[in-house]
Amino acid sequence: MRYGMVIDLKRCVGCYGCQLSCKAEHATPPGVFYARVVKRESGTFPNTRLVFLPLLCFHCANPPCVDACPTGASHVRTGGVVDVDHDVCVGCRACMQACPYGARYYNRDPRPYFGDQGPTPYETARGSGGKRGVVMKCNFCLDRVQAGLDPACVANCPAHARTFGDLDDPDSEVARLIRLRGGTQLEAGLGTDPSVYYLPP
Ligand code: SF4
Ligand code: SF4
After folding, report:
1. Ligand showing the shortest atom-to-Cα distance for residue 86
2. How many CA atoms lie within 13 A of 188 on its CB side?
3. How does pLDDT run across 65-100, given as a tens digit for each residue?
4. Which pLDDT band, with edges at 50, 70 and 90, does 19 fall under?
5. 108-128 average pLDDT score
6. How many angstroms separate the alpha carbon of residue 185 from the centre of ligand 1?
């Protein structure tokens, strides 16, 4: 089994629902976006259009971040999910240098949302995930997935632009969408083999 996600750029309306629901799910500090949406212009003036590009960790099958990690903190979990063990991470940030997609963040200092409110929910309620001085990232909401739920960004997309499932199962919805709609990986030439596919706008 290999968990993967398909993002339909034709359906995405750029509402940031994925970005916000991810922040709510993981209580990440300001400036940290495991899921984020960037806007790109495609075409040539005057025949241009805005394309919304939702991004997240691609949970690559050949993850350079895992290879770069000197402590084993960056590791591959069930279904190919790439995660960080915060009890082992020493905050060297070699993984951030190695990731070509900018999908990792360093939890450097307290960053409350509103003034001096003390520890953020991320620091108090998320176990070792709230430690400072470590690297943090998307883990495909593996806790939710193992409870039979979709990742938060998938469940909260009002346009149903995101689909999650088993890439290895040819009968899964993700495999079907990739096959029928011509799903592609971003920067496939890097050889990282991302587990996130995009359907054309
Ligand atoms: Fe696009 Fe869905 Fe994210 Fe909204 S929630 S920006 S429609 S992917
Ligand atoms: Fe590994 Fe942590 Fe260093 Fe990243 S910051 S390479 S996860 S020890």
Report:
1. 2
2. 7
3. 999 999 999 999 999 999 999 889 999 999 999 999
4. very high
5. 62
6. 18
Residue 63 near residue 192, CB atoms below 8 Å? yes
Q: Name every protein residue with a CB atom under 6 angstroms from any ligand 1 atom.
A: 12-18, 37, 52, 54, 157, 159, 161-162
Domains belonging to the chain, first-starting first, are 3-199 (3.30.70.20)
H or E, element range at 67: helix 64-68
Cα–Cα distance measured from residue 174 to residue 106, given in angstroms and rounded to the nearest whole number: 31
Ligand 2: distance of its center to the CA of 18 in Å? Answer: 26
How far is the centre of ligand 1, averaged over its atoms, from the C-alpha of 5 (Å)? Answer: 13
- State the virtual CA torsion across 28, 153, 142, 123 in degrees, nearest 10: 10
Q: Is the predicted pLDDT of residue 119 greater than 90, yes or no? A: no
Number of Cα atoms under 13 Å in the Cβ half of residue 10? 7
Higher pLDDT, 138 or 29: 138
Tell me which of 121 and 169 has the higher pLDDT: 169
- Closest-CA residue to 150 (of 135, 172, 128): 172
- Consecutive H or E run containing 26: helix 17-26
Kindly give the distance from the C-alpha atom of residue 142 to the centroid of ligand 1, in angstroms, as a whole number: 20
